[in-house]
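queue> pop job 88
queue> type: inverse folding (structure -> sequence)
queue> payload:
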């Protein structure tokens, strides 16, 4: 249901000066701040087709590392879904490691329903001359060749860089290991003008020192890589993005239902030095 591509768009969530590594430079990546963000989730809207009468939960996103050592992301997305007939507990746990310098990416996602494991996807990917090569080890062993794609942190850097340049609309292909870990996604990103926060600005009260800093309103739509014509997005995310990669005030539109995510807690970690 939820893709790790937000940690990267978030979230999370890549074309900088200096020596490039897969489209991003190690120097530019130092703008990203290690942090742990907790978001409270609520159902904003749901169609009859969704079969959802109520939904709430919590999302925890932890981003660590440095441009020289690589970045790790620990991500957990837990929801209680009320269908009117039963209440289900869903739990998605994702961990990734991204090495910007060498163009490598590792990923592991486990999905649970009512504390029972439904699916595990594990593998690695690396940038090659002709695109991205993916080695999957779970649920089965196989190799996949994909078109040239950005990994999640690279994509985050691209969004920040283009926002700083004033680009308002652009397209990217990304690979984040989500779903079955064998497909890339096309993203269309819209960036609004940078804004200064106001007193009643969403969940600014939980943003700590970030509450007084400017941000960009960002919308990212995700499409299948083989889309044709006026295809509808698989899902769409809206959020407020700071220059250091922290996000807040989320809206996640999955078509049949929409969730909002308000920042409940933010802890910024000490940033390591590259040696």
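queue> result:
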């Amino acid at each position: 249901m939820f893709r790790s591509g937000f940690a990267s768009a978030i979230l999370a969530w890549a074309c900088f000066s200096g020596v490039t590594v897969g489209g991003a430079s190690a120097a530019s990546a130092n703008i990203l701040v290690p942090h742990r963000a907790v978001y409270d989730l609520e159902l904003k809207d749901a169609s009859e087709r969704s079969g959802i009468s109520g939904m709430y939960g919590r999302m925890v996103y932890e981003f660590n590392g440095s441009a020289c050592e690589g970045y790790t992301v620990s991500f957990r997305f837990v929801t209680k879904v009320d269908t009117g007939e039963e209440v289900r507990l869903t739990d998605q746990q994702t961990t990734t490691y991204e090495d910007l310098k060498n163009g490598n990416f590792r990923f592991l996602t486990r999905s649970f329903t009512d504390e029972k494991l439904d699916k595990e996807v594990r593998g690695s990917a690396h940038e090659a001359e002709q695109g991205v090569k993916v080695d999957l080890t779970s649920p089965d062993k196989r190799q996949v060749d994909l078109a040239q794609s950005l990994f999640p942190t690279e994509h985050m850097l691209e969004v920040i860089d283009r926002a700083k340049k004033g680009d308002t609309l652009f397209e990217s292909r990304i690979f984040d290991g989500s779903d079955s870990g064998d497909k890339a996604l096309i993203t269309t990103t819209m960036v609004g003008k940078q804004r200064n926060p106001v007193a009643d600005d969403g969940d600014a009260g939980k943003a700590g020192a970030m509450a007084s800093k400017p941000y960009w309103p960002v919308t990212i739509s995700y499409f299948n890589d083989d889309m044709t014509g006026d295809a509808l997005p698989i899902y769409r995310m809206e959020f407020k993005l700071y220059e250091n990669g922290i996000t807040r005030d989320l809206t996640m539109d999955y078509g049949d239902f929409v969730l909002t995510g308000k920042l409940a807690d933010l802890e910024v970690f000490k940033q390591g030095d590259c040696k």
